[in-house]
Design a protein that fits this description.
The protein is an alpha/beta fold. The chain is built from 13 helices and nine strands. It has a nine-stranded parallel β-sheet.
């Protein structure tokens, strides 16, 4: 607990110093007040969302480096709209922006248009420390991606920016320009609901150290935007030092939890003590005890926006559990790990679809 308190104090001090450094606009570099965050959240209906990767893409480079398949994406977002989803969380890729910023932003702009047509708001994720496959790919790369490994979830997923670029001091200014460019371009776009600055920091790639995250929040607050910024807590226990840094700097409180209803209720109660809106940006893993029947009504009654992992089963192979080795199968007891639709749009389990549509 002493370590957590130390990280929290350092985080707050850094944030205070950076907020004083910008004398041109006193509205920048300031964490949203509780009242502003509450007013922003109360102005919206309850949000039911999903994490989305098009079924034809296995990772973020494969998605954003190439021209979007608007037919497939449009069809899959239409299915989401029919299930009454109102928001989606999508992962971006730094190296694709670095290689060609204008083409990358054009692709993202097109995706925003496709989502808006279906009345679905978008939560972009700028950075990510997750890496999967065997071996795990800890550095993204342009061009043809590694072949999908049968039986493994997210088998060619790569982080953003990855170990090599994320730990290179010479890259820091380019990372800052990336954050500024995306926020300056889309920071007043009403199709974007909020910015998730970093997914699961200190996961496999371990770029998202506490000092990097605090600096990242400062970079984001150097730009005048309309949307809140956040990073999700995902470590257990909740007072983990990294969680404390995240909570101290986020405008709204977001979290990941793949578990049962009782654990979810406990986590929500603990996070609501921060007196800020609470949003679950990742949930739903059937073998971990997740259930649409039990957790969707909990989210709705607590007015906690909830973004399940997955929508359409495809190259991410999210039917397989995290712990599978190459050639592994679907969990024999619980079935698919994530996702709710086959690639042709037919339900994996109709009873789940009925519950999802109800809420």
């Amino acid at each position: 607990m002493k370590t957590a308190t130390w990280f929290l104090k350092i985080s707050c001090l850094f944030l205070l110093l950076t907020s004083c450094s910008n004398k041109n606009d006193s509205t920048l570099n300031i964490r949203w007040a509780e009242a502003k965050a509450g007013s922003w959240y109360d102005s919206m209906p309850w949000i039911k969302g999903f994490n989305y990767v098009p079924s034809y893409a296995g990772n973020t480079t494969e998605w954003w480096e190439n021209p979007l398949d608007t037919i497939i994406i449009g069809r899959e977002l239409r299915w989401a709209q029919n299930l009454r989803y109102t928001s989606t969380r999508v992962f971006l890729q730094y190296i694709v922006w670095k290689n060609n910023p204008n083409a990358f932003k054009k692709n993202f702009q097109l995706f925003l248009e496709l989502a808006s047509t279906r009345h679905i708001s978008v939560m972009p994720v700028l950075f990510d420390d997750c890496a999967f496959g065997q071996p795990a790919q800890v550095d993204p790369f342009l061009g043809k991606q590694r072949d999908i490994i049968p039986g493994m979830i997210l088998s060619n997923w790569t982080p953003s920016p990855g170990v090599k670029l994320g730990n290179d001091p010479a890259e820091k200014e380019s990372l800052r320009r990336y954050v500024h460019d995306m926020l300056k371009t889309f920071g007043h776009d009403r199709r974007i609901i909020l910015w998730d600055l970093f997914n699961e920091p200190m996961n496999e790639a371990k770029v998202g150290t506490p000092d990097f995250l605090v600096r990242l929040f400062a970079w984001a607050r150097e730009v005048d935007i309309d949307q809140p910024v956040t990073i999700a807590t995902w470590f257990t226990p909740l007072d983990h030092p990294l969680n404390m840094v995240i909570i101290a700097n986020s405008d709204i409180i977001t979290y990941h939890l793949y578990s049962n209803r009782d654990d979810m209720a406990s986590r929500i109660a603990a996070l609501k003590k921060q007196n800020r809106p609470v949003v679950c940006t990742e949930w739903m893993a059937r073998p971990a005890g997740s259930s649409y029947e039990k957790e969707l009504p909990l989210f709705q009654s607590e007015k906690v926006a909830a973004y399940q992992w997955g929508l359409v089963n495809g190259r991410t192979q999210c039917q397989f559990p995290w712990w599978n080795k190459p050639g592994g199968g679907v969990d024999s007891t619980f079935g698919w790990f994530h996702d709710i639709l086959h690639a042709d749009g037919t339900p994996y389990r109709q009873e789940e679809i009925d519950v999802i549509r109800k809420y």
